[in-house]
Amino acid sequence: MERRAVITGYGIISSIGNNCAEVLEALRQNKSGIVAVPEWAELGFKSCVGGTIKNLNIEEVRRKIGLKSRYMDLSGLYSALASIEALENSCLYPEVLASERTGCVVGSGVSNTEPIYQAGAKLYNKNGKITPYGVTRSMTSSCSANLVNLYGIKGRSYSISSACATSLHNIGHACELIWGGICDLVLAGGADEVSSIMTANFDGMRSALSNNFNDIPEKASRPYDIKRDGFVISGGAGIVIVEEFEHAKKRNAPVYAEVVGYGASSDGHDIIQPHPEGEGAYRCIKEAMEMARCDPEHIDYINTHGTGTPAGDVAECRAIKKIFGNHRVPISSTKSLTGHGIGASGAQELIYCLLMMKHGFITASVNIEELDPEFTGFDIVLKNRDVQLKKVLTNSFGFGGTNACMILGKI
Length: 411
Prior knowledge:
By secondary structure, the chain is an alpha/beta fold. It has 2 domains: 246 residues, Peroxisomal Thiolase, Chain A, domain 1 (3-Layer(aba) Sandwich); 148 residues, Thiolase/Chalcone synthase (Peroxisomal Thiolase, Chain A, domain 1), CATH 3.40.47.10. The chain is built from 14 helices and 15 strands. The strands form 3 sheets. An 11-stranded mixed β-sheet has the order 5-4-6-7-1-8-15-14-9-10-12, sandwiched between helices. α12 links the parallel β9 and β10. α1 crosses α14. The longest helix has 16 residues. The model has no long low-confidence stretch (mean pLDDT 97).
């Protein structure tokens, strides 16, 4: 019997909300999570806006998670908190996870920088004791390692790190573990912090971050607009429960969608700039479409990678055009509201899609005041649209030319 991978739970921390209910309301209201970050202005950054995590008391989060939170820094805490929500809406008790048939594939696009910075500062100043938890807080597999430790998971566990495509690659691999009969249930996704240290590196890159809208931060993330000038950095976490369909049915689990298609590819072109014609993105989308046995008219909505970089938006839409031809599938970029969550973004945007599928709407791409002529002819959703979504496609692409595409089908 063919094994099917379904989503039975999801949880999120995002610039637009600290749980699914808050995020849903923000998507419905087109509420931006992008704000001014005065600290970055004081540090002399060119970009002084970000999709920060708000109204989250970290000490309260540590108390909720318990003693094992001492091994976690921000991305670990975000992923743990998102996993708690995912388990709750999957009707799963934590003790059920302590199985050799349960896996965990959760990653970060960038390591937690604060523990490394603190250790370096203490070494440089020859002052103070270095925390014994620095390694577990900063290692690139911190999210998966901490979740496995938290829940006693005994199956496959590791972290895929692929820049901005990280969490969608993790979820895609979780599906492969289900399809291949290796696991029956997998926690999957990604998390990243919003830190000054990480942002400094992006701020130093040419044409990476938006810096022309520091005075009006909610307008800074503007995919497809003629004045777009880069992405807005964000963070948080997205965790989904990927489960084998028959396994889910046996425990009467809620089934929110099936992963019917997944594709992954590399541009092999440039470590920073995408292939100008979206050649790698095209192959990635094509692979997902072929796996899902989808024709263009079967896709009801595309949640684009849509970061707001001049080159990236063009390359992605050229790839979409090559696949979909004259079929005008509705597209929008949720990053226009949230900013770019780096390693968390793929999972977060998959969850935005799940929420839109469940509640029957498409959230708009905001801040398009003058459409770039390059995107003439695309059905870019400018106002929220009420529509029943049966199949949706979401893209995540990253530095290094790495690409991921996933198609969800309503059951």
